[in-house]
Every structure is written in structure tokens, then in C-alpha cells.
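Follow-up to my earlier ticket, as requested here are the two runs.
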Amino acid sequence: MVDKAEFQDLYLKMKEMHSGLVDTWQEVTDPSKHVFEDIGIATFLMLLWNSTYQGLNPPAPRLDQKFPWSHFARPPDGFRDMGCGNGLLTHILVSSGYEGLGIDLRARKSWTSFGPETASRLKVQALDLTSIRYDASLGRFTGLPDVLGSNDQKRAGRVFLIGNHADELTPWMPVMAHAARAHFVSVPCCFWALDSRFHAQKKRIMPGPDCSAEPSPSESWELALADRLHSVLGGAADANSGTKKGTKQPSQYGRYMLWLARLQRECGFSVEVEALRIPSTRNWAFAGISRTWQTDSERARVDQYVDELVGQIRERGIFKTRAPEGKEGGFLTLYG
């Protein structure tokens, strides 16, 4: 998705600009890991946006803040960093000249340390995703969080959703993106299903697609994806491993990756993956940009799938929206 040489060139510029964040880190976690990891993710996003939104006019560079990438194309209605946590990725993007918001269940002490420009873009909000419904009379989904903006089909793809180790929100990224007519990138970490923990080997009933460990021989895209993900499917969590280990039982991480890919496909997105050059073993990014449908009737089937999927979760009653300022974690309380 992103050229390696272009990534390296831009990463060095971004690192020079933002590496000082290590010295002002406010959280108890390792600053070097978080800062350089999020610089890498921001670099990847900037290059992906530039290639995705080419042809759209980028905003005019501000006189007081010019960047070598000011001419880059970008999401017309900005980004939404869902489950932004410490707000670092949002801060790096905003201070690099990009428009967007970071959304989380509670504020972190680091938010105010980033300065007023970033602080004004960090929002505390609980998300009731079970309120999403398809309204056939309107021809669109309703009940979306306000922070996602308009989901008018004429404005499709103008908002870009980011799920950076977003925990419980990770499987919801393609669901939200389809309902909001948005694009997204998700970097999975912990194993969450749509309303519970992901436990593929326990054969628990979970809303969503099949969670089998093996790609379907009849699905060429699954076979191609399995070839890309051979390291994690073979039991190693390092996406940069050069040894194919297809004879081993897939790891829980590998099973989860396949399940997320199937869910993304069911939500009408082609599955594009890339191993990010970041200091993390959970470094695979899923991009949802290209759509699988060719006709209105095919899109209608995806609308129906997403509507019924959210309805199933609603009926199970396990997903519970937490109030803002709750304990640290995600956006929902899980029972059962």
C-alpha cells in the first residue's frame, strides 16, 4: 500500500519533528515505544491518504506552519482516531497539519500536555454502537455517533476512521465504516469480538463470520491473504518473519486476523493488509478503502448484513455502553 522508500524518507522527517515527545511523556508507559510507534503509524497514514485522495484539493498551507508534506492529499472531512487513548497519534497528526479528532471514553493526563490545539481535538464520548440501524426510507444508516459526521452517500469516503490498538472497537471498525460510508485503517492488538472476548478455540457462539483457522479453498482472497499472513497463521506473532510455518497450528493472533478479515469482507470492503515498520509485534494494519460491490443490489446486501449483524448483537444484550470517565479500558462493559 505504501512505498518503502517513500515511507523511510517521510519517517525520518517526522521523527526529527516529533522525537522530542519522548522527553515530555506524561504516561507511565515506555515513551520510546509509544512515540516511535505512533510516528510510524502517522507516516503510513499520511502516505496512504496521499495516494487514496489524489485529485482532491489539499488545504492551503498555513503561513505560520509549513510542512514538506503540505501538498499531500488527505481525507476531505478529516480523520477520527477511535479509542485514541493517550491521544499521541491524534497529536502527531494534528501538529503535522492534519484535521481530525481523537475520541475516547475518558481523558488522559497526557491530553493537556499536548497544548491547546490538540487538546481541543480530543473528545470524551461513549459510543452506543448498537443504536446503528439501516433506514430503508432514507437509504442510509441512522444512530451513528455524531463524531462520525454525515453518512450521506454523496459524501462517501470523506471521513477516515483510525483504530490504533483500539481493543473492543477493533472489530467494529468495518461495521462503523460501512454504516458511516467511511474509509478506515485498523491495527489489531488484543482479541475482541463484537460483544465479548474472541475465543476461537472454545467454539463460543459469536456474532459475525466463521472463525475457522484455515482459509477457505473456494475463496481466492482468503488464500491470498493467508499467504501474506503466513507468519502469524503459522504461530509466530511477528509479521516480518521470513520463514513460512504453514504446518503449525495457527496462533490465536492468526485466527483473530482471519476472522477480522472475513468480517471486513462481509462489510463490503476489500481486504488490504500491510506489515507496518513499527516497534511492535502486533504490527499488521488492515485497510478498508476499496469496496467489493459492483451494483446497487450488491451494496444493498451488505447494508442488510450489517443491519442484521448489529441487530443480533442488540438482541444478545451483552454489549453495554459505559458512561464516560469509567475505568480505563474500552467503550463497553462485557458480561457473560
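Run two:
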Amino acid sequence: MKGSEIYIGWENSTGEYTVGDYFGIGHTQPRLNESPNHSVVALRDPAPSWSLQSFSFCRPTTLSSNGNSITPTAGFIFAGSNSAPSGNRDSARIRLEEHDVRGVFQPDFSAGSTVTTTGSGINGSNSTIGEFSFPHGILSPSSSFSYQTMLITHGSLMFIAWVISPFIGIYIARYLKNTLGHTWYILHVFFMAAVTGAGTIASFLLIFLYSPDRFSTDDSTVGDYHEKIGLAVAITVVIQVVLGFVCNAAYDPDRTLIPWWDQLHWWLGRSLFLIGVLNVYLGILYYQERFDAVWAIPAFWGFLVLGIALFATANYKDSKDSKSMK
């Protein structure tokens, strides 16, 4: 809906309807038009019996500014939601939930004609207009797997892959080699390759399979950074996993110096971990621009502090043991 003008109506506290004028900026809350170009008017015809909500408004056909003009070839989309907006419903400054149904239609409003079309819609009743048109991703959106659900799934996979799994994988490699023997390597590969590596790729592909156009970040600076960093991380994590297997294959138990490829694997992994954690944080901020998620930031910092405390404790114990051996 980027670049579109949107009129949204809902029942207010008086039983009448508030209609707000907004500008679409993509897959996020639309921006309120501070100088609306419409006015709410009474219904010209009685609302049909199947209608859940009916309201009417008028606006100029041609606008020189502060809105989009209506032309004979203009396309129109519609959407409806079973969820009431949050906030003051007597004001146009509200927060909208994701719509349940949507579609397109193309009447010639510029000719002053009346267009009435119906279709199956909200709550199974004839309450929507026009022909349904959904994004063309392999994973088509549905009521059980909406755009918000997809984002939560993507974010959960990335959270596990970068905020939880690396702490465990790096901890095993750094502190448990002598304790676990060769098992440390198997566990390290599991957490860093299977969980972090494969989880990152799966999460990245999820967005593309849901709908290719979802890579748009909707004029969001945070989203733009998140997208670019995420792409770089997804590519680099593949290199890092391959490098890990190379280091294992080239390992020499009799070596006296640490080879450069081992050091590259160490420092690339640490850098990638920090960047991955940062990008998870950006992803949470990007999600919060669209949906309520007051729990996400506390959860992020909680796991991060827990991981840092784990490493600090292990490092203190390791340092103490080293001093006692001297």
C-alpha cells in the first residue's frame, strides 16, 4: 500500500463512525493525514442486512496537494478487520490491527457512478467488496499464518540462532574441550552449524517464500539496516560454517602455532555473533513499529545478560584455576 491514500472507518464511543485519512507507507501503520480532505456524510442508501459496518464519506475527485486524485483508471483496494483499533476511538490517532480480509476492485468513481459489488468476507457473511487478491508467495497468507505470525516465526528463529545458540556453542568450544573430549566438537557443530547456521538460512528463506515483496522495509530506517545486515549475516554464516569444517579437517595435534585459518574462524565467529545479536535487536525494533511487543526487549536483554554472566563466571573460574596451578 506504499504511496496510497487510505480511508479507515470504525465505530466510535457515540455509536457513530470516525473516518480517518491516512497515507500508506507499506507493511506498517499508515501515517495520519494531518489535513484530511474528506468529510463523513450520511448513508445515501440503507445499509444492507448482511453489513456488519456501514459508513460513508465524500472527498474531492481532483486534489492539487495533500492527497491522491481519483482518475478513471485508478485502482482501489479494500480491507476489513474483526479487531477494533486500540487507543481513543473518537480520534483518528489510533493503532490498527492487521486486517483479516482484503481485495481489489476498480469502479470509475470519477464518472459519478454508483458501484455495488459483494463477495464472501468477514465472518463468512457477504460483507466485502470486489475480487480477492493476495500476495504471490509460495506460503500464502491465511488466518492461521498471517504476516504478523510470519514475522514472529522469523524473529523466534533468529532469536534462538543468535541470542541463545552462540552462547552455548562458543562456551562449549572455549571451556569444555578437556571435559567433553571429542564430544565438544559434535556439540559445537550442532549449535553453530545446525541451530545458528541452518536456523538463519531457514528464517531468511521464510520471508522470501511467504512473499518476495516482503523484503521491502517500508521507509523504515531501522528496517533498512536490519534487512541489509541480515543479508550480510546470512551470507557470512555460510562462510563461517564451511571455515569451521576446514579448520577441523586441517587440525594437527602436534602443531606448535595456531594457524591463521583457525584464528580467522575464531574472530570471524565472534564478530558475526556480535553483529547477529545487534541485528536481532534491530529486528525487534522493526517489529515494534508494526505490532505491540512490550515483552520482546526485556526478553532480549534478559537472555543477553544471562549469557554474559555465564561467560564472566566461567572466565573468572578459568582464571582462578590458572593462577592456582602456577
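The only thing I checked on run two: The first strand starts at residue 5 and ends at 11. Let me know what else you need.
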